[in-house]
Design goal:
Structural class: alpha+beta
Number of strands: 4
Helix content: 25-40%
Largest sheet: 4 strands, mixed
Shape: elongated
Order of helices and strands: EHEHHEHHE
Strand content: 15-25%
Distance between the termini: 27 Å
Strand order of the largest sheet: 1-2-4-3
């Protein structure tokens, strides 16, 4: 078993045919430098796959309880553990800048379905994060309650946060 800390600056051991970072980089500082470190560990022909959260918010509903609670969650995660999804759409460019070839990407944002797995995930997440959500000042208890109710309502109509995957191959 190989264990290394990507963020500590020490040389990473070994080279690899496949490196897959899924829901990792968005939580770490200096993401661009980390992509460079990962790309540098690829064998010739090796594949680097990056996947992190991405959102396609409904710009016509920016003040809905759902949107306000989701925004509060991202703010709370950034303040507490450094999570930042802003650079995720830049991953294909980062891979090209590292000289990787066959760079491609895809985005998957599942629709939320009342009582479905994704809606239940967000409901559980927001319930557990309630104090942190309210501490952002973007929402109060009433707004969070409305958002939680909406996640199980028959009229639920949102694209949930999804995942952007980008990949490239060492020449």
């Amino acid at each position: 078993m190989l264990t290394a800390d990507l963020t500590d600056g020490r040389p990473l051991p070994g080279t690899f045919d496949l490196i897959h970072a899924r829901f990792v980089l968005m939580h770490l500082p200096d993401r661009r430098r980390l992509v460079s470190r990962l790309a540098g560990r690829l064998n010739p022909g090796g594949l680097l796959v990056l996947g992190d959260a991405v959102e396609l918010p409904d710009v016509l509903g920016p003040s809905s309880p759902y949107r306000r609670t989701m925004d509060a969650m991202w703010r709370a995660l950034r303040a507490t553990i450094g999570t930042d999804i802003a650079a995720v759409p830049s991953y294909p460019r980062f891979l090209r800048e590292e000289g990787l070839r066959d760079v491609a990407a895809e985005v998957y944002c599942p629709p939320l379905v009342p009582g479905g797995p994704a809606a239940l995930f967000w409901s559980e997440t927001w319930s557990r994060m309630r104090p942190q959500l309210e501490a952002t000042g973007l929402v109060d208890a009433d707004v969070v309650d409305q958002a939680l109710t909406y996640l199980s309502a028959p009229h639920l109509a949102e694209l949930g946060p999804g995942m952007a995957m980008a990949w490239g191959r060492r020449g």
